[in-house]
Amino acid sequence: MCSKIATNVEAEQSDCSSLNLDFMIIGAGKSGTTSLYGYLLRHPGVFLPELKEPEFFSRGEVYKRGMQWYASLFCDAPPGVLRGEASTTYSRWPHTLDAPQLIQEHTTTRKFIYLVREPVARAYSHYRHHMRDKVTMTFEQALQRDEIYFDCGDYMMQIDRYLRYFEADDLLVIQNEHLQKKPQDTLAKVQSFLGLEERDLTAAGVERRNLGEDDYALRYKAKRLMQSLPGAMALKSRIPQSWRTAVFDRLRRTRFAAQVREENQPSPLLPETKKALSARYEPSVRRLEAFLQCDLSHWRCH
């Protein structure tokens, strides 16, 4: 089981003790944050660092690098644009540092975007992601050994942590299925929340990043191969996303891809596991319904 991490980490900080930052995408992991990050990169009024997940306020080893390191991620931001970042580990309490407390202490951020997804599907996707290199346990074993799979889908527990330091109006909660099925309407809501001039962020195509859950292992091995080639990662940043997607689609149809899938088959989501986990999430889902004043009955296991 993952040990709970102490929150009052002492870090050697530079003189740069506070950063003017406009917003953060705080999670939840496996709920569409990468797609939202891609959409917001298209807006001329937004700057997001190339490092999608700095994890500065959630991981002790990163936090110890100091505010000067963190501020350097935003030094290329043009004047007048909104500056933000996206780290899904900012909503993994209590398995990380107390991210909302540290954010409140060190930044001016008062806008948080939190994507949520049907929690059982999110937990299973999280498990599959962790098994992408090698399958070492079943989903049921993973749930027993590490509470992180459950806790990241206990959305109200994560929201409660932010409400200790921020107001409810500082938080925009987006359902993953809305971003997928009605991207224009959802992105209009995001832009309004951030105070941006509304743009059609889907004009260049619909973002469909990290949706191929059957290909977690293939994506992982392809990335590892790229990292081993000199200059490949630098070249990657110059290649349009559409080209990279097309190349990966070709790779998915190769014999190599079939072999990777065969060798990295995680355990299935069993109906009895889904039902039990859905029941365990029910109190949190009911609280989220009350907080958002919406109906989440489509999340329930029938």
If you had to describe this structure to a student in words, what would you say it looks like?
The protein is α/β, with parallel strands linked by helices and 302 residues long. It has a domain at 23-120 and 147-210: Rossmann fold. The protein has 15 helices and five strands. The protein has helices spanning 33-41, 60-63, 67-72, 99-106, 119-130, 139-145, 148-151, 155-163, 176-181, 183-194, 216-228, 232-236, 241-252, 255-263, 271-292; strands at residues 23-27, 46-47, 82-86, 112-116, 171-175. The protein has a five-stranded parallel beta sheet. It is globular. The two termini are 30 Å apart. The model is unreliable at 1-16 (pLDDT under 50).
